[in-house]
Amino acid sequence: MMKELESLKAIAESQLIELHNSLRDEREQKHIYKQQLDHRIQQESRRNLDSLRMTLNGHSSTRPDDDYLIEGDDDIEDDDTSRVPSSTEYSDTFENDQQEQQPVGNLFSEIHGNEIRKLELECLQLSQIKSSLDNQLLTINEKTKILSHKIQHLMDIIIPNKQLSTESNSDDTDNLLVKALESIEQIDSIVHKNLHLFNGDQDLLKKKSDEQENFIIKLKQDNNILMKQCNDSQTLFSKTHDNL
């Protein structure tokens, strides 16, 4: 009985340690994933902003300045008529400006689209990781319930009417494990406390068994003596009968 209790205690302790390590690893993994995601988002945002700023700076540096803005006021007054652009020239200039601004808008849209696609991909990966972690957590909770039932069975054997809550979810799993560890400590204390009594009972039983064996041996010896006396008496009776 005591060996069975010690074996169950060792199994329960190993399962508790395994569950505790699994929970700790999951929390560390979630923290690492969050740090990696934040770092990646910051890097991508900085890279995209740098690319956009370089593109805008290159565009502004390549655009030619209007000649009539550089000339002095005297030249404008002297040659005012020749420097006023015609409607055709103004239309061509406006179209050129639109054509030059269009690649910038397309580049910004492309960068923004790439950013959105990357975020969507990372969200999908995080969703898959979350689903996997949820499944692992459900498995851990099921194992915790099984372990709690085993510990409750031991407590019922050793300490009657000692109840251990077996309701478990993602929020109170740690509390349930702590209670299970406390129950195991109580079982261990009771086992060590009563171990000497059990050993004493074993010695007493062995002593009584030896006494019974000696008594049986003595009875066998007495029985053999009685059988011999009986045989002698029967032989004597037979001789007496023959003489008569």
UniProtKB/TrEMBL annotation:
Phylogenetic placement of the source organism: Eukaryota, Metazoa, Spiralia, Gnathifera, Rotifera
Keyword hit for Coiled coil: yes
Similarity comment: family membership: Belongs to the BicD family.
Coiled coil regions, renumbered to chain: 2-29
GO MF annotation terms: cytoskeletal anchor activity; dynactin binding; dynein complex binding
Lineage: superkingdom: Eukaryota
Protein name per Swiss-Prot or TrEMBL: Uncharacterized protein
Positions of region (Disordered): 55-102
Alphabetical GO biological process terms: microtubule anchoring at microtubule organizing center; regulation of microtubule cytoskeleton organization
Protein keywords: Coiled coil
InterPro entries: BICD
GO CC terms of this entry: cytosol; Golgi apparatus
Sequence ranges of Acidic residues compositional bias: 67-80
